[in-house]
Design a protein that fits this description.
Distance between the termini: 16 Å
Strand content: under 5%
Largest sheet: none
Number of helices: 2
Radius of gyration: 13 Å
């Protein structure tokens, strides 16, 4: 894992997923990508899309964004 982007995010797919989750009554979502410690761009963008779609009036709130760490 070098942090290179191999596949672009399907932002429309993420937005569609958010609508399905909202319709199912889901109120909380955790976004955690396997190699986000090397490049957090996709993890952050998916979090932004979900926040926008699930509650556009609330604004972005990704809760406790943590520093990446290996254990």
């Amino acid at each position: 894992a070098e942090g290179r982007v191999l596949t672009a995010i399907d932002e429309g797919g993420v937005a569609d997923l958010a609508q399905r989750l909202k319709a199912a009554g889901i109120e909380a979502i955790a976004v955690c990508f396997l190699h986000s410690w090397a490049n957090p761009e996709h993890e952050r963008r998916v979090g932004e899309i979900l926040a926008e779609e699930l509650d556009p009036h609330r604004g972005e709130d990704q809760g406790e964004e943590r520093e990446p760490e290996l254990v």
